Amino acid sequence: MALTPAVVLRTAAGVAASAACAYFFWPSAAVPVVMMKAPGAAGLLISRAAFLANPQLYFELLRNAGAAAAAAAFAA
């Protein structure tokens, strides 16, 4: 494939359009993660959704592995 000015311009336009779409539409596709202070972990932050899905596992990890390990397992 020869790199003619038309091919270069068409490729540059495609890259620019893709970058613009990614810039404007990517943030709307990202789901915001709601964080909360981890209970019993001195203010570490964990994902609220993960905690509400399985609080028993969080407290089991907190007792057996420690606060840092429990918070890391439930981080976003």
UniProtKB/TrEMBL annotation:
Name listed for the protein in its UniProt record: Uncharacterized protein
Transmembrane segments: 7-26
Sorted UniProt keywords: Membrane, Transmembrane, Transmembrane helix
InterPro entries listed in its UniProt record: Egg_app_1
The species this protein was found in: Eleusine coracana subsp. coracana
Domain of life assignment: Eukaryota
